[in-house]
User: Fold this.
Amino acid sequence: MDIRTLQFAAAAAFAIVASACTAPATIVSPAPAPVADVMPAPAAGTLLTYHRVSHGSLGEFDGKVAWTFGRYPMGSSEMVSFVSPVVGGSLHDPASLAIVAMVDASAQPTMSFDPPLGPRWPMKVGDTWTMKYQVTMLPSGRQVPMTIQWNVEAWEPVTVPAGRFEAYRVVSTSSLGEVETRWVSPGAQIPTVKRHVERVASHPQGTGTLDAELVSRTPPPAWP
Assistant:
């Protein structure tokens, strides 16, 4: 093989390597975030256990709290209840799971919301809206107006002790001085996978923080 043949072979080899290195990479687009039509209510008897840490106006607490889904008669309707014997809970509209009222540990209403408080459905990333609410303190009947700015910021995986879930990250900012970030997983039928709440000094109840994440989910007992 003469010198010209060697030079040609070397040039050809370099061209092949160079073309391989500069070939356009295949781009795989991420799966689009879904549009959720509704937040399905967990079956009655479902037990969700969270690790909750709170301070200030949201109470001094660090430990596990278990909430049970059930049904609660309210006037001529039946609400979805989500109640803990330790910290109380909430009553929800069965169609949207928006909060109709908050209850104490004995399941007695302490405040109500008109309209019911919660994100709107269908839900998709990028949704943003503002809602005005009338909060009624019970049993006094004192009413407090409140406005909330809602933002669906992301569809993302969130890992908690109970596992890994795909969830919407929803941020609500209240005119009373409270900001909550909540991860909502309609596909897993879990209204709250994780949440973080902050209250500023101007809040009527003062400053406070709360963090909670799902530790376990126990299905309702099987009936014989």
The longest strand covers residues 143-160.
